[in-house]
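#structure-requests
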Amino acid sequence: MANRLVNATSPYLLQHAENPVDWWEWGPDAFAEAKRRDTPILLSVGYAACHWCHVMAHESFTDPAAAELVNRDFVAIKVDREERPDVDAVYMLATQALTGQGGWPMTVFLTPEGLPFFAGTYYPPQRHGQMPSFTEVVAAIADTWATRRDEVRASADQIAAAIADLPPASDATAPVGLRETVAAVLADFDPVHGGFGGAPKFPVPTLLEALLVKGEPASVDVAQRTLEAMARGGIHDQLGGGFARYSVDAGWVAPHFEKMLYDNGLLLGVYTRAWCRTADHDGLLRDYFAGVVRGIVTWLATEMRTDEGGFAASLDADSADVRGRVHEGIYYLWSPELLEDALGAADADWAAGVFHVTSTGSFEHGLSTLQLRGNPDPARLARVKERMLAVRAERFRPMRVESVIAAWNGWTIDALVRAALVFGEPAWLDLARAAAAAVWETHWIDGRLRRMSRGGTAAAAAGVLEDHAALAGAYVTLAGALGDATWLDRAGALLQVVVDRFGAGAGFFDTADDAEPLFRRPRDLTDNAVPCGTSAAVSALHAYALATGETRWADRATAAAGTLREVLATTPRAAGAALTDALVSDEARARLLRGAVGVAASDPFAELARAAHRMAPAGSFILTAPPGTPGFGGLLAGVDAPVGGEPVAVVRRGDRLLGPADGLERLRDALWTRV
């Protein structure tokens, strides 16, 4: 049996390289083999940090008996959803249509032509109640293919045709009542635990961003309460910083422990905006949000940075105990006894109260996640956390997934730049610049972007819409912070690809027009864990238009935003990024506040520049560069510093230029004056 996965770029595929299942990578060779043998395809989709993917692999894919059944009757294809989000998207639609739900690992049975006819997610090694075992499913599908093939093919044709004909939700003319939309979001708020809905409960950074942008007391209060509850909960790594993927309960206590780059990159941006939105008199909450920001950046810098300078995709949910047994979350869990071993009796008793570590536990096996209770003494808390972190470092660490995903790095770079300028941290800006350079040097090949790389080598998979858009938006933000038009030129190259290759009338598809054809061209207009590709493109196009002064890019953004109106009106919780843009655009129409801010200063961390990042309306582009800098639509070309060389700022709104303004009060007036 050929070991076809051993040279894969994907860490997830490499995890299965030694399975007795005769895996193929997705591609024409696998489909040709299925046609040659006239056998169906078993498609298994997952990702490297997925706990239940590991469970099914251990239970079924490493079982020689199960592998024998698969190899005899199927061509087995393994797909990393992080590398091929297009493949994942179309077969997830099929899985949801056939079963009413989705998730990973995703298990789909296809005709040799790639059309789905049966689908599910995780299957256990033995039957559990009404859930059949994996081998029962495999045997039943093989028998059905052998005895009722014509029915299977007819069903597959009908399923594929129905899914291919599903229109994306879009209506470029329907009005959206933003007040009603925000009210619908607030109606789903959980006033007891924060967040929206019940268990399981996910961070929703795009939605929280929209509520902060709305800026009214009710929306800001909901966002602040949710962000504080998350940060105090077990979903937040109280020692090392960063957030887990989601909480299995409604109270943020017991997380699913994988830590994803995209969650933390987007949450970094939200906590930064929340800090800016929180009133100065609420110093305790501001300090707490600042601490969360610093924790995320510390996690990025110490645990997620690759040798090339980019950021790795994730940390696994699982790790081993002292006996080598693998458990979910064991790296992060504590008991009163473990606290006493680490801290001594007095501090252990104090820490148990502060972190709610009990003898019965809040997770499994009598172990507890760490939840921050009350407002403990900061100095003592810092000392205790430092000692606990040192002890935890001696445990077996979760595996890091080494793949670098273009879009996820884009969102993280953008948030890092903004946080660096708001909090005055040059080292954070250096982290962002290094990551931006690493992704560009590795992923931009022959005028197109690759989706993923590992160890400085790009995988073959093409970048999708979110990759081009997220990275373009980050490069615009970085160009403004550094006063370096090189990054603006790179953003322009990415967005030209977006317009030329991904355009679909007013909106965009998620794959390029020359991408591998599937039975449906992906086009998802709802936010999931990350903004949908169209929303990412709208944001990047608006930013690029402000940075260059070229309104045609803004016109393209406005047209694309129209395709998001129906989902915004019907399911606003799944359209946080579109809601943010709609709120910003509505305010801009009313007061022309969406604009470009130019700060004439040689130091991006000059106080006036930092103030611009703290005070500018959402959706603004901010440039810090020496006086008279050309480019950027001529924003600073004619601006001279006053005598003494103190920074000054100008604000461009449409064809009007306000300023120059020196000092914080005049800057505030220029930023917020109605024109």
